[in-house]
Specification:
Structural class: alpha+beta
Radius of gyration: 19 Å
Number of helices: 4
Strand order of the largest sheet: 1-2-3-4-5-6-9
Order of helices and strands: HEEHEEEEHEHEE
Strand content: 25-35%
Length: 217
C-alpha cells in the first residue's frame, strides 16, 4: 500500500512510473471491520499497451488502483486501465517465518490477454520487475518494523492508507490480547504499544499466474 500516490511517479521509473503522477491527488480510504479499501486514480506509463506503439494511445495513460487489505496477512490490488481497457488483479499473501524472514506469495489474474500464454508470461515478467523495485526500496530501510502506534511517526496525506492499516493492526493486537487474557493458561500477544509488524530481511519473491503456486527465489 506504500505505492499509493506520488511514489509511483518518483520511484518506479523503470516500469510504470510517470512524472505526471508525482503530485498526489485526493483518494478514498474506507474501513470495513478488520480490513480496508483504498481507491485511487493516477497517470502512469503503460509500457504494456500495444496501442501505444501503434500510435492509437499516448504512453502516459490513466488507471484506477483499488487496494483491499484484510488483517493481518492478505492484500489484493485491482488495476483498471481506463484508456486501454481491461483490468488485472494481483493477490498477495504473507507468511511470516522468523523475526527477520517472511515468505510472500503473489498471484495475478488478467482479463485482457485472451488466454495467450506468451502474453501472460510477459505480463508476469513485468510485474516481477515491479515487485523487485518494491523489494529493493524496502531493503534501504534501517528499521525493519512498522510501528502500529500512530503517534510514533509524522504522517502526510500520502500515508492515509497505511495509517489506517496501522490502526487496524493495533485494534487486532488489542483484541487478541483481550481474548488471550480471558483464556486462563493461554499466553496472549504483546500489548499494542509494544507490538510491531514490518518488512522482512529476506525480500525475494516471485510472481505466478492464477492456478500456479508462487515460488520464492
Amino acid at each position: 500500500m506504500t505505492a499509493i500516490g506520488g511514489r509511483s511517479g518518483l520511484l518506479d521509473k523503470g516500469t510504470f512510473g510517470a512524472e505526471e503522477s508525482a503530485e498526489l491527488a485526493p483518494y478514498r480510504v474506507d474501513r470495513d471491520g478488520w480490513g480496508l479499501t483504498v481507491a485511487y486514480e493516477h497517470p502512469f506509463t503503460n509500457r504494456e499497451d500495444p496501442g501505444v506503439e501503434a500510435g492509437l494511445r499516448p504512453l502516459v495513460q490513466t488507471r484506477r488502483m483499488t487496494y483491499r487489505y484484510h488483517a493481518p496477512f492478505s492484500l489484493s490490488l485491482r488495476l483498471e486501465f481506463l484508456d486501454a481497457g481491461g483490468a488485472n488483479t494481483i493477490g498477495f499473501v504473507i507468511q511470516p517465518e522468523t523475526a527477520e524472514s517472511t515468505r510472500l506469495y503473489a498471484t495475478m489474474w488478467r482479463d485482457d490477454l485472451g488466454g495467450d500464454e506468451q502474453q501472460m508470461a510477459a505480463a508476469l515478467a513485468f510485474e516481477q520487475r515491479v515487485l523487485d523495485e518494491d523489494l529493493a526500496l524496502a531493503s534501504r530501510y534501517d528499521e525493519l518494523c512498522l510501528p502500529i502506534d500512530s503517534t510514533v511517526e509524522v504522517h502526510t496525506r500520502a500515508d492515509r492508507g497505511t495509517l489506517e492499516l496501522r490502526r487496524v493492526l493495533a485494534e487486532l493486537v488489542a483484541a487478541a490480547a483481550a481474548e488471550g487474557a480471558r483464556a486462563p493458561g493461554r499466553p496472549g500477544p504483546a500489548a499494542p504499544d509494544a507490538a510491531a509488524a514490518g518488512p522482512p530481511r529476506r525480500r525475494d519473491a516471485a510472481m505466478a499466474p492464477a492456478g500456479q503456486r508462487p515460488v520464492r527465489r
